[in-house]
Write a structure and sequence with these properties.
The chain is of the alpha/beta class. It has one domain. 32% of the residues lie in helices and 15% in strands. The strands form two sheets. It has a seven-stranded parallel beta sheet with strand order 1-4-5-6-7-9-8. A two-stranded antiparallel ribbon has the order 2-3. It is globular.
Length: 253
């Protein structure tokens, strides 16, 4: 919502943006986290074109939680699509509205967090730079993200990172080879909690914020989705992704 509680004017494509951009689910509300979402993996726009919202997705696309369950509800999919279309049609307008919203009373006090993308990713340089400008204009809010856009972050974020932004590189994407396991904060999805402990990784299951504030490397237990768990098997997403080049070289799929 714009300053003064007024609904923002229509964007450049004539569509009226949502009154509020950030939402909360029950899990994140308990730790005072708001979230912003885009369609997972890719989206077909109303004009018939397709946008890849997770360009560096790899094997993660086969088990993505954001393509299953409640994320498939028509109302949820419509909201995520509207978010993407707003960003694409009027990135400057979106940035101004996001900044204004972050100055509302609910984000004051210094303990508010925004999780950028519980689905979707930083799909372009321009979009990531817009988020960095939002952070610079709302220094009282803290931000975090999981991302597979490793090359983009190393180019645009790592040289001069905002003090209020924390991120974790999530394995299972096509840019896993760019991760420095010794220097970077890294997360991987494990089959279960026991396999996280056995590997000596640190679970974030108690709080999503442990992914960016707790000890590293970070282990995430797989969601309890039978089909996805069957596909992943007893390997992590990082291990699964690492198998792909070898299979291709051997002539496998």
């Amino acid at each position: 919502m714009s300053k003064g509680g007024r609904r923002p004017p229509p964007s450049k494509d004539g569509k009226r943006p949502p009154r509020r951009l950030l939402g909360q689910n029950r899990e994140l509300a308990g730790i005072k986290v708001w979230n912003w979402s885009l369609p997972a993996l890719a989206a077909r726009l109303r004009d018939g074109s397709t946008v890849r919202t997770c360009p560096a997705a790899g094997v993660c696309a086969q088990v993505c939680y954001a393509r299953q369950g409640t994320y498939r509800f028509p109302s949820v999919q419509a909201r995520h699509l509207a978010n993407l279309e707003y960003v694409l049609a009027d990135l400057d307008g979106w940035r101004r509205q996001m900044t204004d919203e972050l100055h509302e009373m609910r984000f004051q006090g210094g303990d508010a967090w925004v999780r950028i993308h519980d689905s979707g990713d930083f799909f372009s340089d321009e979009y990531l730079l817009a988020w960095l400008r939002v952070m610079a204009s709302a220094r009282h809010v803290r931000f975090y993200a999981y991302t597979k856009e490793i090359a983009r972050f190393k180019k645009l974020v790592e040289p001069d990172p905002p003090k209020t932004f924390r991120w974790v590189y999530s394995l299972g994407g096509t840019e896993d080879h760019l991760v420095d396991l010794e220097a970077d904060r890294v997360a991987d999805v494990f089959p279960d909690a026991e396999s996280i402990e056995a590997a000596g990784w640190h679970s974030q299951d108690r709080s999503d914020l442990l992914a960016v504030y707790g000890p590293t490397p970070v282990g995430i237990p797989a969601n309890n989705i039978p089909q996805a768990r069957h596909r992943q098997g007893d390997r992590t997403l990082g291990q699964w992704q690492a198998e792909r080049p070898r299979r291709n070289a051997d002539g496998g799929s």
